What we know:
By secondary structure, this protein is of the alpha/beta class. 30% of the residues lie in helices and 23% in strands. It has two domains: 2-149, no CATH class; 158-194. Strands 1-2-3-4-6-5 form a six-stranded mixed sheet.
Amino acid sequence: MIELSMGITLKSIRWKEGQKVVHNLPGKRGIRMDFCVEDGDGNFFDLEMQKQNQGNIPKRTRFYQALTDAPFLKSGEVGFDNLKPAYLVVICGFDLFGFGNYRYTFGNYCEEIPGLYLGDGCKKILLNTGGNNDKEVDKTLIDFLHYVENSDEAALPAGCDERLRHLHKKIVNIKSSEEMEVTYMKMQERDRLI
């Protein structure tokens, strides 16, 4: 999903984790990341899904970025060299900004000097499953986002990327697994209780 979202190929994965919880200070809000990966080059990716616009994506990405960075530095550590390049990808079932783009990429830049970027190693990528700028993005991304919107066999276009076909096979297996259905129901119940 990360490769399809960002148009990259990961050489290797050092670790991956779904539903990773990062705690904050006692009494302060933590986060639960949908899916995160550290690749073999030390890049950190957090992949989130947001079906409905709750009006909080910009500040949510800011908060998630802060808490995802915190575990990379030990208490009392001098310097910030151990902060990994980080990419926060949010796949939205809506167009947050209304420009019709499939992808909106944000980095920290200087407002006074065009083209001057801070270079803090952080990017936020917001994806829109309903974009319409087909000529400006790779077909692989478009196919993937359309599939996210309708995850069934009919949503797989002929000649689509093999990674998307592989993802579809995984989803079919998950949907047909009784064990996964029980796990999903337990997660829903836990979320309701929380």
